[in-house]
Amino acid sequence: MQAYHIDRFGSVDGIARRESEDLRPGPREILMRVRASSLNYRDLMVIKGGGRGPAKLGVIPLSDGAGEVAAVGAQVTRVKVGDWIIGTFHPRWFGGPISGDYLTDRLGANLDGMLADCAVLSEEALVPMPRHLSFEEAATLPCAAVTAWVALTGHRRVTAGDTVLTLGSGGVSVFALQVAQILGARVIVTTSSPEKAERLKALGAAEVINYRETPNWDEKVRAVTEGRGVDCIVEIGGPGTIAMSLKALAVGGHVSLIGGSLTPSGTGLDPSLLTGRGITLGSISVGSRADFEAMNRAITAHRLRPVIDRAFPFADAKGAYRHFESRAHFGKVVIAHG
Question: Which tops the pLDDT comparison, 40 or 239?
Fold first, then answer.
């Protein structure tokens, strides 16, 4: 089996491709032939030695992958050989509230991930693929798409007629734009370039604000909502944007905090932005298998297709990392395994 391993932390050069031992599924496990994988920001942080939670040298990187069932172990009942499947981001979070126990299993960090010919997964740690998607499209879903789905349907469900604000054009933000629309919301997006603005409009954004040209973009958001503000914000910008996001929020609105939105610790916020307006904030840690399944039903019903910036061959996985690291991508960066 061919697989990439993290031989040292610090940079993309720390991953190496080599022959690994063939895998066999145990009881209640399946062997996935990985057909495609995709990159997330956390994957970049893992190889640099950062990110949250444990990581270990020698591990196979990447949390997200799609493929087909190549073999099954004893007592497997949820899938059969030949089924098209996607791995879940949290292998043991099947539904209900999140638990600290679920966060200790981290594919591509302390558990072998998807940058390999094959992967062994618990039969409980996967979902069926929406059949209108390619393997490359399906591989984009486990982290970024589920995060966007939960950000808009979790703590406060976006409904028809709401207005949503998303920041930028990375994987989570583009999925949030797409998901918000199938929920019936109007979407406002911030970006840094005219080229990306045109692509966001083509995807259905009602308003696109160039934050380089309009540094006080919160004022523009309020202007285009007739002074009301937005109902929900998918906040990925971090300490540089959270204060403006709160100013752009309507009374009774909600902010979904993605990843390390409030890091570094000690970020100062005006308390008046957090009190007296009935607003809520919720931190998103991707989602459960039940969330993934609910999202896939919506994706199938609306024939939603993920936006792929570029697909790299398995032999050029380092090129995929470097392209992702450049932050020039629009949507998702994918690795096609063949």
Answer: 40
Both 215 and 310 in one domain: the answer is: no
Mean pLDDT value across residues 113-124: 98
- Across the chain, mean pLDDT equals 94
Per-residue H/E/C for the chain:
CEEEEECCCCCHHHEEEEECCCCCCCCCEEEEEEEEEECCHHHHHHHCCCCCCCCCCCCCCCCEEEEEEEEECCCCCCCCCCCEEEECCCCCCCCCCCCHHHHHCCECCCECCCCECEEEEECCCEEECCCCCCHHHHCCHHHHHHHHHHHHHCCCCCCCCCEEEEECCCHHHHHHHHHHHHCCCEEEEEECCHHHHHHHHHCCCCEEEECCCCCCHHHHHHHHCCCCCEEEEEECCHHHCHHHHHHCEEEEEEEEEECCCCCCCCCCCCHHHCCCCCCEEEEECCCCHHHHHHHHHHHHHHCCCCCEEEEEEHHHHHHHHHHHHCCCCCCEEEEECC
Q: Is the same domain home to 91 and 168?
A: no
* Domain range enclosing 161: 146-284
